[in-house]
Design brief:
Length: 158
């Protein structure tokens, strides 16, 4: 994938963890595609999820969940209850990133399943080990370009 194209489709947002919480993050700056409040949890803090088939290649290291509020707008806010979720997978070849995920949104029945995966790729990065501030890079419809995008971001961040 061409680096100019990756740069053109890249959107990013920074989320900051709310003081006194382990997993509650609020939008601080950047693109407003995801809900203003996200639960970003490490594997040890995760809710139980099914580990069937979505990504057998990499280890699950966390999870993101969020619900859009009434006053929020986003191309991802399509069906009630306006939820968004993804597991986060770690790529050992790119240890400077927390991980990556593919966005799943509520379908017409209000559930998030394999068919409600948008194919949108997110990559999470933090400069601190405590995950106090996290930058989320968003690439619409680009999950199939994971390796190229990870290499592109690695060059820009390191």
């Amino acid at each position: 994938m061409n680096e100019q194209f990756i740069e053109a489709i890249k959107q990013s947002a920074t989320y900051q963890r709310k003081e006194g919480t382990a997993t509650s993050y609020y939008w601080a700056t950047g693109a407003k595609l995801l809900p203003d409040r996200l639960s970003i949890s490490k594997e040890s803090e995760m809710r139980e999820t099914s580990h069937t088939g979505r990504n057998p290649l990499h280890k699950i290291i966390g999870q993101i969940m969020g619900t859009f509020k009434k006053n929020e707008s986003s191309p991802l806010k399509l069906n009630k209850p306006f939820q968004l979720r993804t597991n986060l997978w770690q790529m050992e070849s790119f240890p400077s990133f927390i991980g990556y995920g593919t966005i799943g949104i509520s379908n017409q029945l209000g559930k998030i399943d394999r068919q409600s995966d948008t194919g949108d790729l997110i990559v999470l990065h933090t400069a601190t080990k405590d995950w106090k501030e996290i930058t989320i890079y968003y690439f619409a419809g680009s999950v199939m370009e994971l390796e190229s995008i990870m290499e592109f971001l690695y060059k820009r961040i390191n």
